[in-house]
Amino acid sequence: MKPFALAATTVAVALSVTISAQKTTPMKAGSGGSDHIRTEWTIDGANISIEYGRPALKGRTPGKDIDPYEGKEWRTGADEQTTLKTDKPLKIGALSVPAGMYGLHTIPVKDQWQLIVSKRPAGWGIPYPAGQDLGRVPMTMGKTSAPVEKLTISVDDTAAGGALHIEWGATKATVPFMVG
């Protein structure tokens, strides 16, 4: 291939790739003392942010010494409710999520988690806001590559949209989503 053709092909491929950006901002620590952060991404033109408290394991084991794995609704973070904000509609698993602000919760069980998207946009993390579900979707379970001391929620850009990950200890729960 001629140098010009190779360069043109490289530029065309680079421009066709969906660009995602991530920005993480530390927030004021919650009343329980856990770190709080807001992480923002741009996925397929959608501006998505998740704000949450990051409980630390401190030598404890999730599902044994501390939550989650009780099979009950969990605030999926520390202190205030974890929130998801999107400026474009999302399809999380099979759930349609209009643009807006929502609460995120999970039902963790050792081998299967469910993500709950709540219509309640803000509030204290407990008690769970029963009757406010927008919907629930199953998450795929896996293991982290290394132990994760503080709860971490992240988003990856994928060929089909994105993937939301929740990691803590050795557990990684993932659910795919699409914009639109």
Structure commentary:
By secondary structure, the chain is mainly β. The protein has one domain (19-179). Helices cover 8% and strands 54% of the residues. It has one helix and ten strands; from the N terminus they run H-E-E-E-E-E-E-E-E-E-E. It has one helix at 3-16; strands spanning 22-27, 35-43, 46-54, 82-86, 90-92, 95-97, 100-109, 112-118, 133-158, 161-179. The protein has a ten-stranded antiparallel beta sheet with strand order 1-2-3-4-7-8-9-10-5-6, with no helix packed on it. The chain is globular and about 40 Å long. The protein starts with a helix and ends with a strand. Residues 3-19 have low confidence and may be disordered.
